[in-house]
Amino acid sequence: MQVAMSQMKQQLDSIKQEITGLQDRLEVVSIEAITDPLTGLMNRKGFMTAVEKAVAEFGHPDSPLSLLILDIDYFKKINDSYGHSVGDKVIQVVANAITKYTER
Fold first, then answer.
1. Residue 24, Cα to own-chain centre: how many angstroms?
2. In the predicted model, is pLDDT for residue 103 greater than 70?
3. 38, 88 Cβ separation under 8 angstroms
């Protein structure tokens, strides 16, 4: 009986570790699902979720709510002239500036 209980405890501990690992992986995958890998900023799905949450939270007239929409002028020309790797760098620089100078 004691051996059986010991084995069951070991199995339970193993299952708990597996569940913890799966929960950790789910958290990582959930973040990856709403994050742009190039910039680290939210992708469209993350953006829409954040907007819905912000509107629900700050949706009355006395609450401040701002939305920044940015377009990099002539970005296609950058890609066409210097290549996509330089274009990616430009996007990263802009994303870093947005992150640095805005509050999340």
1. 15
2. no
3. yes
